[in-house]
Amino acid sequence: MHKIFLIIFIMTTIISCSQTNNSKVDAQKAMEEKYPNIKIDSIEKVNNSFFEIAIQDQLYYLTSDFKHLIVGSVIDFETGSNLTENKMKRERIKYLSKINDKNVITYKPDSTKYILTIFTDTSCPYCQKLHNEVDNLLMNDVEVRYVLFSRNGNDDDAYADMVSIWCSKDQKDALNRAFDNDFVKNQSCQNPISDNYSIARDLKVNGTPMIFMENGLVIPGYVTTDKIMSILTDNISR
Predict the structure, then answer these.
(1) Architecture category of domain 96-235 in CATH
(2) Which tens digit of pLDDT belongs to each residue from 108-151?
(3) How far lies 28's CA from each of 5, 107, 219, in Å?
(4) Three-state secondary structure call for residue 48
(5) Strand 114-120 and strand 142-148: pairing?
(6) Does the CA dihedral 99-107-218-155 come out positive or negative?
């Protein structure tokens, strides 16, 4: 805790002494001169004190006098808002919006209040546990959108199973049976599983299940319905 406050104090001191009128173009030029081999995805001027720089989905903060490059989360000292996490949530929403509704398996409640997008793998035991929560989630007006995602790429048995599930006449029944360790007939057809893998990489999905809320907040791993509902009600106003 002392270390955290020390970092915040040092950063506050750096920022308070670094206000200049340098522009995004100036920041881009300074970064390219210092790190010519690094591809910069974006630069945004947060305020007169520092720039937010995205490099390979990692955020950095460059003080506006170009003397300090900071790695880590930036907290608005007055509001307590995590500026870094807010940026990451916006990025997640952007990537989630690329998922076509036709490329997910959806469990809809009678009345939808919340929507969860879940990257799942039928070979994952904790995905199976989470799937057992689906009925409870539906009773709490939560829509579940499953994105079938093979953690180990497109060459393992789980990938073949998920292709078969996708190509089944009744996808939800096939998915239910797969999570119950029941037989799913081998099938093949045009499917989104490979595209899902690419989107998962953009979203930094490195394990399953991975739950995404509509506002870009992430819930990693298996979580009970009660815990999910607590997180939803705390973070999404309806």
Answers:
(1) 3-Layer(aba) Sandwich (3.40)
(2) 999 999 999 999 999 999 999 999 999 999 999 999 999 999 88
(3) 30, 45, 34
(4) coil
(5) parallel
(6) negative
